[in-house]
Amino acid sequence: MPIEPRPHRVVVLVLAGLLPFELGIPHRIFGLAKDREGRRLYEILTCGLAPGPVRTDADFAIHVEHGPELLATADTVVVPASYELGPVHDEGRLTGELAAALAHIRPGTRLVSICTGGYVLAAAGYLDGRPATTHWVYAEHFQRMFPAVRVDASVLYTDDGDVLTSAGVAAGVDLCLHIVRRDHGAAVANETARRTVVPPHREGGQAQFVDRPVPAPQQASTTAARAWVLDRLHEPLRLSDLARQEAVSVRTFTRRFRQESGVSPGEWITGRRVERARQLLERTELPMEAVAREAGFGTAQSLRKHVQAALGVSPTAYRRTFRASGAGAGPDPDGPPGPGVPVH
User: pLDDT tens digits, the chain, 344 residues: what are they?
Assistant: First the structure.
């Protein structure tokens, strides 16, 4: 009998002052990801600097079975946020105990941080010269503390291959879904998101969550226009057509759309079309010209341009990867949206 592949092992490192919500994110998102046969794609384990109780920022502690030696077995290490990072936050340096724990991580292990967990990766030198983000409240301090890091406070997460960081709190959900999508394709990520009752991809970045005046009550949603677009992705779409669905001027519609989503209507439409193309590449044998037409890109050349820009690979390579993996080929009637890509 063929030996089933071992699930990808995710080890979550918890520190004193842990936010319980963020601890639950990797366990929930990675724990729900399954292949078409229903096999779990990830194994999620938790460790601390020592086995035993770990304080949280709530009125309870959690009990951790494993010590830092578990990090040596990880394929991916996730560091959630903590409000008690001490010298890591205040001085940009690791404690001896934390440095010893991180020393167990094997070269080539994928590293992920959620919110202020990025301070740990930065203090260890993992983020030097790399793009990174953290909660917008801490972004300025983070940059001062770690000038070698290319901090981007405008995004929900960054992906630099083997090192990924997320903004605050719920942005950890966005990042974990992105990792599932990167590892196993859009269909698996969409199904995971659907079971978690969250969008598989949120538009825009942190700017939309920074404190600002509440929009005037008369500023209606652009929901009707978005629903109208999703039924017509294969057709030519003009901005005036979208504005007409909301009975407003193009200028008003564009302003409202960006306020609500954090991106322009063109970026949003292109993102929907890329996601539609991903679904067709994963689940059908349609030739590239047909995929391009169905997704609204018109030509295979345009399809290649946008898929390459959004995913970093050609449509042919994407299909070969995710058709061969056998993951995510199940039905996806809702077709939720995926990552956007700028329109030039």
Answer: 556 678 999 999 999 999 999 999 999 999 999 998 899 999 999 999 999 999 999 999 999 999 999 999 999 999 999 999 999 999 999 999 999 999 999 999 999 999 999 999 999 999 999 999 999 899 999 999 999 999 998 888 999 999 999 998 889 999 999 999 999 988 899 899 989 888 777 766 665 455 544 444 444 578 889 889 999 999 999 999 999 999 999 999 999 888 877 789 999 999 899 989 988 998 899 999 999 999 999 999 999 999 998 888 899 988 887 765 544 433 333 333 333 322 22
Tokens (6 digits) for 217: 């009550």
Contact 54, 15 (CB under 8 A): yes
- Spatial distance between the Cα atoms of 319 and 311, rounded to a whole number of angstroms: 12
Tokens read off for 134? 């953290």
Count of CA atoms in the C-beta half-sphere (13 A) of 131? 13
Rounded Cα distance between 72 and 206, Å, is 33
| Helix, strand or coil, per DSSP, at residue 53 | strand
Distance (Å, whole) CA 187 – CA 332: 7
Q: What is the rounded distance in angstroms from the CA atom of residue 35 to the CA atom of residue 325?
A: 9
φ, ψ of residue 56 to 5 degrees: the values are: -115, 180
User: What is the DSSP code string of 93-144?
Assistant: ---HHHHHHHTTSPTT-EEEEETTHHHHHHHTTTTTTSEE---TTTHHHHHH
Query: How is residue 3 written in tokens?
Result: 């030996």
Backbone angles phi, psi at 151, to 5 degrees: -80, 130
Contact assessment for residue 31 and residue 177, using Cβ atoms and an 8 Å cutoff: no
Beta strands at 52-55 and 61-64: parallel, antiparallel or unpaired:
antiparallel
What sign does the CA torsion over 71, 77, 80, 86 have?
positive
Residue with token string 């017509």: 232
